[in-house]
């Protein structure tokens, strides 16, 4: 039987869909410096945009000046990159891992990588090799290897250089109350949180007093709700978290697009002219999906019901992405579109035939 960390791969977690502008990293070992605060946000983002907050949307981004189509608004490095649920990848190069670090004992590595983050390795090594009781259950952490993903997040707080980033991460939406006692909540509890707590390792961290089930579920929720899907060297999916890009609101007819470069930086650029004081939006879904599929994706993974102009229009703003051709009208050589009127009714716009 597979351990829960592998079983969890089938859980309903929806990452933000993204276009990859190239795959140069598919054949290389790109290493990323996550701790470059002066470079994490493009100057254009500061000059052209401001962060606002509302009760319905939470944090969102609004333009403070006119933005031209094609203009780059943000070029941002990831705060962290983690494997997709159920995958065990090298923490250094993101290929599949076949061994663990010989020093800290729990950091996954591929056969070609011998080292990883010096700070992470030393911190974990000091904690694990300490004679302090209770003893760290290393084998439990290896069995439930998805625990390392949350440890990576907690290590941001351990490092004084990245502690502010950790606190900013905690400000992201996790929809904790909507996730409580759901299947994904229980999967995280079984495969990540309980093994992490029972291993005793969180008791040795500076966040020990905060590391209860609720706090760790909040971190899991932040990643499930806010992370972007990126490509591993083998073209399989991974997850990346971006502090600024995560604040962009969704719209099914967005005015900005996103792409990932070979260094896993996210680029946000205007796909049309954006007026001053206009909300900057991206699409969390594939824009070629129909309304039902888009709404289902957003409801299950992002915990909201989209009421944008496209979703509210049966013709999807004349794109007819979900429209059916009426066979009766076609037989009579007429043009008829069968549109969804309500959840149970589809009606032809020409002959009024219902399905």
Automatic annotation (TrEMBL):
<dbReference type="InterPro" id="IPR001214">
    <property type="entry name" value="SET_dom"/>
</dbReference>
<dbReference type="GO" id="GO:0008276">
    <property type="term" value="F:protein methyltransferase activity"/>
</dbReference>
<dbReference type="GO" id="GO:0008170">
    <property type="term" value="F:N-methyltransferase activity"/>
</dbReference>
<dbReference type="InterPro" id="IPR046341">
    <property type="entry name" value="SET_dom_sf"/>
</dbReference>
<dbReference type="GO" id="GO:0008757">
    <property type="term" value="F:S-adenosylmethionine-dependent methyltransferase activity"/>
</dbReference>
<protein>
    <submittedName>
        <fullName>Uncharacterized protein</fullName>
    </submittedName>
</protein>
<dbReference type="Pfam" id="PF00856">
    <property type="entry name" value="SET"/>
</dbReference>
<dbReference type="InterPro" id="IPR053010">
    <property type="entry name" value="SET_SmydA-8"/>
</dbReference>
């Amino acid at each position: 039987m597979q351990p829960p960390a592998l079983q969890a791969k089938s859980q309903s977690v929806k990452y933000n869909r993204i276009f990859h502008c190239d795959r140069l990293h598919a054949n290389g070992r790109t290493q990323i410096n996550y701790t470059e605060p002066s470079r994490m946000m493009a100057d254009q983002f500061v000059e052209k945009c401001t962060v606002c907050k509302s009760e319905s949307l939470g944090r969102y981004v609004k333009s403070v000046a006119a933005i031209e189509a094609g203009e780059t608004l943000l070029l941002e490095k990831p705060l962290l990159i983690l494997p997709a649920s159920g995958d065990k990848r090298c923490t250094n190069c993101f290929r599949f891992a076949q061994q663990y670090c010989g020093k800290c004992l729990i950091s996954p590595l591929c056969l070609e990588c011998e080292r990883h983050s010096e700070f992470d390795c030393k911190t974990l090594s000091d904690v694990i090799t300490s004679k302090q009781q209770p003893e760290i259950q290393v084998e439990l952490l290896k069995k439930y290897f998805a625990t390392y993903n949350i440890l990576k997040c907690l290590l941001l707080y351990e490092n004084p250089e990245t502690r502010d980033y950790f606190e900013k991460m905690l400000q992201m939406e996790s929809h904790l109350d909507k996730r409580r006692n759901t299947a994904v909540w229980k999967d995280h509890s079984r495969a990540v949180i309980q093994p992490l707590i029972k291993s005793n390792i969180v008791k040795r961290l500076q966040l020990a007093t905060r590391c209860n089930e609720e706090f760790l579920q909040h971190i899991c929720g932040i990643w499930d709700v806010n992370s972007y899907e990126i490509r591993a060297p083998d073209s399989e999916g991974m997850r990346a978290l971006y502090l600024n890009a995560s604040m962009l609101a969704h719209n099914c007819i967005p005015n900005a697009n996103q792409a990932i470069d070979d260094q896993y930086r996210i680029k946000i650029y205007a796909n049309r002219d954006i007026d001053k004081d206009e909300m900057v939006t991206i699409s969390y879904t594939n824009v070629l999906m129909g309304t039902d599929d888009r709404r289902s994706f957003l409801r299950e993974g992002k915990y909201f019901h989209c009421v944008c102009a496209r979703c509210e229009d049966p013709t999807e703003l004349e794109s007819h992405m979900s429209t059916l051709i009426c066979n009766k009208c076609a037989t009579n050589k007429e043009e008829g579109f069968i549109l969804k009127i309500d959840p149970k009714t589809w009606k032809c716009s020409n002959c009024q035939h219902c399905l």
